[in-house]
Design brief:
The protein is of the alpha/beta class and 204 residues long. It is built from 5 helices and 11 strands. The structure holds iron/sulfur cluster.
């Protein structure tokens, strides 16, 4: 999909007190530095060819969860995690409730926040609702996935994506050290393959 006029970027106004969730894992080492909770938000209208998470595209699928509930889910993990990674789907199509979640999380716990978005940096900073999420983010990885420029390193799925260190909490080396993928076994025995490059493990 080609770049869009930033002025035409549509940020969906959803209920500020709830998010549509695709998935959640309490502990991952392949979605940012250290052990992190990962929240995948449901819904993405950007349509990057070759996206390996098409199940996260329909905006009304997944689970609806209140900001209160998600905050408790992350905060209950306590000192066992270094931070929260938010991915999707397209998290910034739920910018208002996402901002509410991250703002409250930052007040409550010293967790770092990494945010993946398919919007470019220029699109994010040109749209007030999306830009207002940035004060609560340590690292933003921005831009469409471009299969022709596949990279799968340093948390960037393709070389056109840009990384923005919004605080001094992390540097490039921290992201380069993150494993490309991992396989996690859930409490009910379910298998989750995650990370920036699941095909690295021979799984699609
Ligand atoms: S922005 Fe992300 S979830 Fe959306 S189509 Fe692109 S790669 Fe897939």
């Amino acid at each position: 999909m080609g770049a869009r006029d930033p002025g035409a970027v549509k940020v969906e106004a959803r209920h500020a007190g709830a998010l549509r969730v695709h998935d959640f894992v309490a502990r991952s080492r392949a979605n940012g530095p250290g052990v992190r909770a990962v929240l995948w938000l449901q819904g993405c209208s950007l349509g990057c060819p070759g996206c390996f998470n098409p199940g996260a595209h329909p905006r009304d699928a997944g689970e609806r969860a209140s900001v209160d509930e998600l905050l408790a889910r992350v905060a209950d993990l306590g000192a066992g995690i270094e931070g929260l990674t938010v991915s999707g789907g397209e998290p910034l199509e739920q910018a208002r409730p996402l901002r509410a979640l991250l703002e409250r999380l930052r007040r409550r716990a010293p967790l770092s926040v990494i945010l993946f978005t398919g919007f470019t940096w220029e699109e994010v900073t040109a749209a007030a609702e999306m830009a207002h999420v940035l004060p609560f983010v340590d690292v933003l990885v921005a831009g469409r996935y471009d299969a022709a420029r596949r990279l799968a390193r340093g948390l960037r799925g393709s070389a056109n994506k840009t990384t923005h260190f919004l605080t001094d909490r992390y540097a490039e080396d921290d992201l380069e050290a993150v494993p490309a993928a991992e396989i996690a076994i859930g409490p009910a025995g379910e298998v989750l393959v995650t990370g920036i490059d699941p095909p690295h493990l021979g799984v699609r």
